[in-house]
Each structure stands twice: as structure tokens, then as C-alpha cells.
Amino acid sequence: MEHHLRRNLEINENIRPQALLQALSLIVNPSTSDSTLSSILKTLTLSLKNPNTNPFLSHHILRLFSLLFHHRLQLPHNLISTVREFSLLPSTSARSLADSLACLSISDINVNDESTFLSLVLRPCISVRHWLLLNASKFDIRPSVLLTVLLGFTKDPYPYIRGVALDGLAELCKCIVVEDESLIHGCYFRAVEFLFDSEDSVRCSAVRAVSACGQLIVASKQERSKRDWSDALFLQLCSMVRDMSVKVRIEVFSALGKIEIVSEYILLQTLSKKASSATKEMNFPGQYADKIFRIPASSASFAFLHGLEDEFSEVRESACRALQTLAILSADFTNEVVNFLMDVLNDDSTAVRLQALDTMHHVAMVGQLKVQQAHLHMFLGILLDSHSLIRCTARKVLKLTELPSLAMFKMCVDGLIRDFELYPQDETEVFSALFMVGQNHGKFLVSLINEVSQMVEPSSGGKLGYDNARKASYLVLATSAPVSMKQQTCSIPPRIFSYAVTLLGRITRSLAEIVDQRTLLTYLSYCSRFTFVSASEFFKVEKHLEGCDVQLIQRCEVISNYHIRRKLQLKEAESSLLDFQVEQNKEINCVNIILQAVIDIWPSLKLGLIDEVTRTLRNLKAELAMISDNNHSGVLLP
Predict the structure, then answer these.
(1) Transmembrane residues, as ranges (predicted)?
(2) Among candidates 106, 187, 109, 193, which has minimal Cα distance to 144?
(3) Which of 20, 25, 210, 385 is spaced 20 to 30 Å from 322 by Cα?
């Protein structure tokens, strides 16, 4: 069959669609011999050169050449020879295919030395040049040589060659060690030149190169000079935030977000609605226009203001993301950022709102999030957003937010409860947020719970009625109320802790990362026996409050599991003694452990945990009786 199909192809001077199908079947068949494939290559080449070949079929012949290479990689030399012939053809599509095949065939050529790479990269084939520059990092070339090559090709007349050369500079600057500062400075200012290129794609590449080269320069400088160069890089990028290309603007804000050192007065200018007179005379190394080779400090004016108000949501999202890093560099700048982000929460784009919340969460994690009461209602409105991920992120921010007043605390609690009422499926996350917000604001929590304590009381018929979202929320909030372990007092009516037991399963699911159900039950039962004191007296006496934090819960867990752990310690001690074959001293060691256990339960006795202490003593007595029964050494007295 193979011979028959091959013969049909060879005798057809004017190739037809049926012959192309036969060629295709032979190319994709892995059992086709190399001699047949070579014959197909020759036939297709002759057909393509034939002026009588239908142009429509020429396109399909070119596709067969690509398939021939992909399926039979052992023919690169034949293909390269064919490519050279194609490059002389007048057909644009043929020359294009020649470029593509040349690039593919290079992947099978061993380019291990600089001379081979340089000879290939200087070939007139544009796609070969593009492919080599794109994959330059894969070749064994000295960084200094590669840097020179890339700098040279930034002047290439073809835009996508200039772009890939600039991207190569950016990648190279991320991994090289600075040996010649003047060379890196040259790379930086060459990249700055192309910020004014007429092609959008080249300007995008130039932004990436300016960012990478600039950061390499900053890293190589000392303290004062480091800040000056970082400011210069920041200003140079800020000069591009009003570029006509959306992609360039997105790239600019992405680069701005990578800068870690910026002077405060420059940062504040980016969100100011008027330029500062103090910065008008200040200039930094850079290029502001084609013939202006100093960058003024006023370049930063309105930069992020423009970004956050850009007509394209992708740009607004990129601007919000950039502020994650920059917002924590200055306290004054942080406050301005938060104020603007509150307005961004009303954005039409879900992605932008989510990114604004992510940025606020990042600021909150470093303890710098301060929300003004005038803006709080905007933030709480996002808790009712129809997008679940938006609501989830907003609750994460609330958990870390410090609220300066009781009124703001009440607003937040009410916002979370309305979230729960509107979206019952959010119960677990809402309860978790209520617990954390209450834990972080002990005094406000006590005041609120004492106000609403009558609401959580059972009805006259004895029904608790905690299916109501608001009542259940208040109970969850109450579990985080501060208590005094030392004084065994609490600042809210202790019976509320016993009411919370009715929601034990639901609360446990919300606090799964903190506590298990058994420990939580122990804690609630323990606190329900405390003495209630007024808030003023409680906070006056208890200077160091013990809120419902992880350490407190762990202490309750220790109490509840005390006797179990002691039995395990006894068994471990016994096993250890058996390993050492010291039978005659086993009883003495066990008795010492038991005596130590009696001493260790004294704190539990002071806490009034009579039941736990009694249970532990009973277990220890049983262990002592067992040792006495097994005593053969006569050491223990009857």
C-alpha cells in the first residue's frame, strides 16, 4: 500500500486534492519509511514551485510541510535545504512557511557556542532572529555577550524584534550579577528610550525592561543613592500611566507594584488632586519626552488617581493590586489609599471590587487599616454583595479591622447580622467573623451584649428561639466575651454561656480552626459558673484581660483531658522502665509519677474544678492499687 501511494504521488505532475490526502496518510503513519517521506518532500517541493499549481492547493501543501516536520524530526537537514529554496520564492506564504520551518528546525541543532548563535541570529530570516532572541536564555552564552546582542537588536526595524529584545533584557536583568554598572545603566536608559516607541507592544516590553533594569540598579546602590534611584524609577513609570494603550497602562501599574522604596512626598502626590509646589523644581535621572532627559518629581501627580478612575476595569484592577505593596510604605499614604479604596468598593466590575478588598486585607494584615466612620457604611454595604467571594473577602477584612468607637462596632455587628439574614448559607463564615470581631473589641462587646441580653433570654414559655438569625448571632458574639480565669468572673451574665451550648454544633463549625466541639463545650460549661460583675468593675480589676483566645481554650482543653494524659504518661513510663530491664525500680518510679500528678492537679483545684480533680484522683488511686497488687520487691508498704 505504501509503495502504491508513493507511486501515485511521483507520477502526478500536477498534484490533486486526492493526492494530498494520500500524502497526509503517509506522513501521519508512523510505519512509513524514511525513503517514502523523502520522496513526498521532493514531490511537494516540485509542486509548490510549479507555476501551474492551484493557489488553493499551495496552502494545503504548506500545511503538509509542517506536518512532515512534526511527525518525522529525523529530517531536519532536508527541511533546512528546502527552506532555503523557499526563501527565494516570490510567494509571501512560502517565505512565511520557510521562516517557520527554519525556526522549528533550529530546535534540533546543537547551539552550544557563541559563534554559532551569533551566526544564526544575524541571518536575514526574521522569524529565525525572533525565535533565537526569544529563546536566548537557553543557549550557553556569556551574559555580557548576550546583553550586547540584545541591546543591538533593540534598534531592529521590525517592532516584534525590538519587543523581544527588550523582554530579553528584562529577563536577563533578573538573573545576572552586576559587574559593570555603566552597562546596566546603559540598558536602563536604552529601555527608557523605547517608552516613546510608536508601537504599543514595544512600549509594553520597554516598561518591563525599565522595571527590571531599574530594580537591578537600585539593588546595587547604597542607602541614600538607593532611595534616589528608586524614586527615579517610580517617577519614570508614573510618566506612562496616561499612555494611550490599555495594555501599557496595565503593565505600568504592575511594575509600580514591584517597587519597595519610595519617598513619602512622592507617594502622596500620586493620590493628590493638585500638584505640590514643593516638588516642582525637583528632577531625577530619566527621560520625560523625546528631548527632555530629566524626569520631574511632578510626574507622580495624579498617577494612581488616574489608575483608579480609568475607563477600563483591567487598568483599575491593576492599580488596586499595585497599591498592596506601596500602601504599607507610609502611614499617611495608607490612610489616603484606604479612603480611595472605599470608593472603589462601588465599582461596577466584580474583579475590581475584589482586588480593592484584597488590598485592604493586605493593609489590615500589617495592622495599618484604619476605617473612618464616614466610610464605614460603604464597606458594610459590600457584605450584601451578590458575589460570595466578595462577601467572604470583606469578612476577612473585618476580622482584622480595629474599630475606634462603640458606634462603629455596633454598625459592623449589625452589618454581619444582615449578611446572615440575607444569605443564610454564609452562617459558618459570619459566625467566625462575629467571634473574631468580638474578641478584638472586648469592652465594646461587653457593652453591646449587656444591652441585648434580654433579647437572648428564653421566652415566657421556656422556648429559647435561637433559630432567629439575630439572636443566634448575639449568642455567638457572646462566646468571645472576656473572662477572668484568675478571678472566675465574667463581664456578661454567665447564663448566656449556657444558652450558647444550644448552638454548640453550629459554633464549632465556625471555629473549627481554633477548637473542637468537646473543648468548646468544656469552656462554655466552665464559664457558665463564673460570677457576673459590672463592666466597670471587671475592667478595673482585671488589668490583663484574658479574652476568649486560643490560649484560654487550650487551658480548658488541658483541664478536660487531664486524667487521660496522666494515664498515658504512666504507660509511657512503664514502657520505658521495661526497656531498661529495671524491674526492681519500676514501682518506685511509678509512685513518683503519681505523686507528681497529685502536685500538678493543684491549679485545677484552685480553679474550682472539683469534678475533674475528683476524677483524676480516683484514677490515680486505681493506678496506685494496681502497683501495690503487683509489688514483688517489698519496696512499697502495705
Answers:
(1) none
(2) 187
(3) 385
